[in-house]
Amino acid sequence: MEEKRRDLLVAGLYLGDVTLALAAVAGELPAYVKDFDLAKVIPDADALEPARREVDSFVAGGEETGAVPPELLRRILDTAIEKGRFLSAARCLTLLGELDRRVDDLVRSAGEKLKAGDAAGAARDVAVASNLESETAFPLFQYSGPDLHARCTTAPVECLTRAPADDAVAAALAYLLEGEKVRAFIDGLDAEEKRSLFPHVALERDPGMRDLFAALAEAHAALGEIEGGRLAALRADVGRAAQVTAALAGFLAGASPAGEGTARSLERLRRTAGGLVKDFEGLDSLLDDLQLKRVKRRIGNLLESEDELRAAGEVVKPGDGGGRAALDDAVALIEEFRRNGILEAVDEIEAELAGLVVGLLGRRVHSEQHWQYLRELAFKYPVSPLVCCIRKLNDRYMVVPRWDGALTAILREFLESGPAGSR
């Protein structure tokens, strides 16, 4: 065998790449290996020695047949599985005529290990079986993850993160594992078996799950601080504004014009006060829905009425007495809001909420759209779509942690218990 073909076999064995091995025995070298240079692909010559000796023994022991010997295929298969090259592993098994049998063996082994209490071992077996069955060798979580939340904009209560524990676990396993035989195996498990298997499968799919939960805990804490701090203070401010504007409207409704030429001005004041009452009546629900831009506009309407309210003393008849305190209170509240920078505070709350997902992912995405964040998160942390959801912020959506979800609780308890391999 010529040197280049021998090098291709060595590389195929060392890397677990059956494509290189098949190229080595092809009648004519494929175009993609014409410029192959083993020293450039694998510079560590010492690391190659075991593979080189093994290839030499295969080459010396038999004639060239135009096919990779089954013994060498099995060695490439073992390396491919060890290195996570599951497309190569599946192709090796197909060439050997053993793909279905290997998947069946892995699924059977997973069942036996699960019954014996080895959920971690069962998870490894079922994950490998899933990869061998998969057309892409590993689920494309960057697409299937966001799909879990495709209906969350219209039916958030139906989100996987809000489902009862048993239903959520079953759906999560279906998301994490592919393959007809693997899915049939999962469907045949009872609820307790699925629940014991789930966190181990999650860790198999997402070795960075502990880092994800550290970021998730920080985002949850930050969200709690926003809701219990700045947002709570804003809610209190708009609550006071609702009371003040209601009192102002009540006072103006019974007030008399200061003179013949002020009746029209008084009527205009009443309309202004009535509009402010309507603005602040519904503000609490807008805050619940994080419609901060609308909240800001309505607070802005109050601030813009300052000059008109200050001039009201010349419009209202002096004899309309104690109720004039409502007018003074309104002006004082506007002064307070301006002094404390309430509009800027609303902007800061919005920025902090929008930044939660940046902390989760560790960077911004160009589009700043929730679906792009979901996609990038699922690619980095395949488990993230199971413990995050979306929440509307003004006219768009943001990604937020679902700290109280059933799946989050199961995985958090699993990580806190210190399972083997989770640290």
Q: Tell me which oligomeric state these chains represent.
A: single chain
Read across the widest sheet, the strand sequence of neighbours is: 1-2
Mean pLDDT: 91
Q: Tell how many strands the DSSP assignment holds.
A: 2
Helix coverage percent: 55-70%
Q: SSE order, as H and E?
A: HHHHHHHHHHHHHHHHHHHHHHHEEH
Low-confidence stretches: none
Structural class: mainly alpha
Strand content: under 5%
Biggest sheet descriptor: 2 strands, antiparallel
Q: What does the model show?
A:
The structure is a single chain. The chain is mainly alpha-helical and 423 residues long. The two termini are 48 Å apart. A hairpin with a 2-residue loop joins strand 1 and strand 2. A two-stranded antiparallel sheet has the order 1-2. The mean pLDDT is 91. The protein is built from 24 helices and two strands.
